[in-house]
Amino acid sequence: MLTKDQITRNWLPRYTGMPLEEFGNYILVTNFSNYVRRFAEIFDCKIYGQDRAMQAASNGEGLTIINYGIGSSNAATIMDLLAAVKPEGVLFLGKCGGLKKSTEIGHFILPIAAIRGEGTSDDYFPPEVPALPSFKLHKFVSDKILEHGVDYRTGVIYTTNRRVWEHDEAFHKRLAEMTCIGIDMETATLFIVGHANAIAHGALLLVSDVPVTPDGVKTEESDRKVTADWVDLHLRIGIEAMTEVGQKGEKIKHFRY
After folding, report:
1. How far apart are CA 103 and CA 108, in angstroms?
2. pLDDT of 109-119, one tens digit each?
3. The CATH number of 4-248 is which of 3.40.50.300, 3.40.50.1580, 3.40.50.150, 3.40.50.10490?
């Protein structure tokens, strides 16, 4: 295998267990296996890769969901591998920590940009290149959120490769100075590697915790409550937005990369 295309066409099925011809033109990516299980229940479809690093399911109507795992390196991997099927659009359904008083648990965030604090994206573009979503894709998502009568926030997400930082007051101070609305481990990477692979991309984030407050650090119990209260709506909005993009057939890529 001497070319990137040869590698990705071999590795995408190897990582997910799903044949290339099963992938839809529109992709939901997430880092939670329960999103894939719920998707499969909604569409009564097969889950591939339950013994692999990633799990995937397709509804037979052009929409696929993939659980790629956790962290920026895995986010980069899936966006590279998806170049094998050249999707029309990819939407990340992730969770994030809220960093503002206006971002409470259960709120949705449509990031207007992400700060590249994770390091992985440096292998793709110089630091001066901003991590941005595809505006038109976010417009479809915004419309669907409002149709459900739900409010949402916009702002900048800080993406870090650091998992345990909630105890670090110096890191808290840095976050406050950057005035970000939320923090996660993947958004900037997904945006940058999507850009590198000419894949239209976006993110709809669910605030699952408020880690800069004493009682706001995520626990197993608090995460179960967020899942019970909000995950089904989160997934439903993603499904409806990407389905509508496909049905309307509008181009959501930039004219040139």
Report:
1. 8
2. 999 999 999 99
3. 3.40.50.1580
pTM (predicted TM-score)? 0.93
- For residue 233, report the phi and psi dihedrals to the nearest 5 degrees: -65, -40
Q: Please give the Cα distance from 74 to 32 (Å, whole number).
A: 13
Cβ–Cβ < 8 Å for 107, 151: yes
Rg (CA), the chain: 17
CA dihedral 237, 242, 210, 149 (to 10 degrees): -30
Query: Does the CA dihedral 229-231-234-238 come out positive or negative?
Result: negative
48 touches 39 (CB < 8 A): no
- For residues 26 and 86, what is the distance between their CA atoms, to the nearest angstrom? 9
Pair type for strands 182-184 and 89-98: antiparallel
pLDDT in tens, 224-237: 787 788 899 999 99
Task: Region of 164 please: left (phi>0), alpha (psi -120 to 50) or beta.
Answer: beta
Q: pLDDT tier at 139 (50, 70, 90 boundaries)?
A: very high
Mean pLDDT over 183-197 rounds to: 97
Boundaries of every domain in the chain:
4-248
Asked if residues 207 and 103 have their Cβ atoms less than 8 Å apart, the reply is yes
> Among 2-6, 56-60, 141-145, 200-204, where is mean pLDDT lowest?
2-6
Measure the CA dihedral 202/207/209/214, to 10°: 110
